[in-house]
Amino acid sequence: GKPPSSLAPVDPLKLKALSMGLSKELKIILIKMQSAGRQTFNISEVEEQRIPLCKISIKNTATEVIRACKGTRVKGKFKESFLLPAFSVKPNIDIEIPIPREKLNPPTPSIYLESKRDAFSPVLLQFCTDPKNAVTVIRGLAGSLRLNLGLFSTKSLVEANSDHAVEVRTQVQQPADENWDSSGSTQTWPCESSRSHTTIAKYAQYQASSFQESLQEEKESENEEEGEQTSDQSAATKIIKFGTNIDLSDPKRWKPQLQELLKLPAFMRVESSNNMLSHVGHTILGMNTVQLYMKVPGSRTPGHQENNNFCSVNINIGPGDCEWFAVHEHYWEAINKFCEKHGVDYLTGSWWPVLEDLYSSNIPVYRFIQRPGDLVWINAGTVHWVQAVGWCNNIAWNVGPLNSYQYQLALERFEWNEVKKVKSIVPMIHVSWNVARTIKINDQDTFKMIKHCLMQSIKHIQILRDQLVAAGKKICYQSRVKDEPAYYCNECDVEVFDLLFVTSENGSKKTYVVHCEDCARAKSPSLAGVVVLEQYRIEELMRTYDSFVLVSNTS
Ligand SMILES: [Zn+2]
Q1: Are the CB atoms for 329 and 412 separated by under 8 Å?
Q2: Is there a contact between 395 and 269 (Cβ–Cβ < 8 Å)?
Q3: Could you tell me the end-to-end alpha-carbon distance of the chain, in angstroms, rounded to an integer?
Q4: What separation in Å is there between the alpha carbon of 488 and the centre of ligand 1?
Q5: How remote is the CA of residue 341 from the centroid of ligand 1, in Å?
């Protein structure tokens, strides 16, 4: 005879079992029978085997995950990582083997495009997003694509929006590979700069006069006698202003500029379907929108990794050059330790690495010049710092190519931010669910990681839900509306997904404040005065989870 095959449960019987007051769920299996040459079906009732929560994996269905949660008594807060170490795709970089000194200054991967077509080749995307390549410079990309960078020149910017806001950083000009402490006696890591505000027109004036002054100085020094050149010019500290974080998000104000950037290959564009930042559902200024930088020589962007370890795209508009330093993500913890040693916060502080410290710790540093028209691709997690060599403008934004390496690093930083009580600018749980709903994934590693994150998310929600219900706390369903943002805890800045702990603050107008469970309980252990809102039906999340499957490459 043929082997028995199981079919889907029969609903009427299940309903009957429930109506009879049975609390246990029955799984009804139809068993195909062979009798006298004809196929018949027998109904067999099998008591459901519940899988223990610790045995649940992404191979299980949402129903099995939920059932396992319900069958587990979790005392206190359930807290598990959204990542599974076994799924890690990080490259193996051996830090035990000492790197010879000359290899601590590796050449930066630089790509020269033969034709416009090469920019759109999948090979370029593959190269830029390869976990081994911390940074890629695409030389003369603007020229190859005939981008009109003139639209971002200081003259054009003044003509377009002269009153637009510019954040100013006041800094001390110094050689790119030096960072002196305030006494000027030793090199150090912290590099604080004071912040103020101005307009594009006013900064443009400063930028132009700074250039004129330097021409004047050059002329004067040429006129001086050779012997008098020894005067200690280097000792005089020059204060400079760096125009930063200029917001180019408004599509009406910056239409020609933003339109020009649509000429870029899809994976570099501000918006594209395979970019996680295009699935946030709202604007994250400077990440999924363009920012502009206006510089004079010495303008410094201190060391950092991008928000949530996302990739970044940076084009030098010119006319001057920029000098870049970059270190592979692999070494970020070593750099973090240097910051701690020097009393500057790695995530939120301003620091400029002392190169000798990095070399003596066996950390390779990429160092290169970005000329006008060059595009710098900062891969996921790369630590980098930049200084202007000449007078120039730059434009930059972030992208999150949907690959396993980017996704892993983004989630890792999401969890590290929570430890350090720093806000994750990218709400990764919200984004993961959006991606699962809208994108077909054909890469196995990426699929497994996202699926695991969704599973962990469901577990957290279901266990918390059951605990609240068991304690007699009412949960109010309130569906999300269009363009509703992701939520963060008002106190600790952690992303709050699905179950929101809401209080209304007293005041003339009623304002509602979202908290995470911990912060809500810190205020009121019994959650008195706290409304628990649920933004998704659990069935809705279960459906999304079950429908999120690996799509084969060929279909
Ligand atoms: Zn909180």
Answers
A1: no
A2: no
A3: 35
A4: 8
A5: 29
Residue 515 alpha carbon to ligand 1 centre in Å: 5
Segment 195-214 shows an average pLDDT of 97
Domain that includes residue 35, residue range:
11-49
pLDDT at 17 over 80: no
pLDDT at 15: 37
What's phi and psi for 118, nearest 5 deg? Answer: -60, -30
| Helix, strand, coil content of the chain in percent (nearest 5) | 35, 25, 40
SS3 of 169, please?
strand
Residues with CB under 5 A from ligand 1 (ion): 489, 491-492, 516, 519
pLDDT surpasses 80 at 403: yes
Distance from Cα 526 to the centre of ligand 1, integer Å:
16
| Gap from CA of 45 to ligand 1 centroid (Å) | 46
My answer on whether 352 and 405 are in the same domain is yes
pLDDT of the residue at 33: 55
Model confidence pLDDT, tens digit, residues 320-366: 999 999 999 999 999 999 999 999 999 999 999 999 999 999 999 99
pLDDT band at 554 (very low <50, low <70, confident <90, very high): low
Within this chain, do residues 501 and 401 fall inside the same structural domain, yes or no?
no
Last residue of a domain, one of 409, 441, 457: 409
How far does residue 418's CA lie from ligand 1's centre (Å)? 10
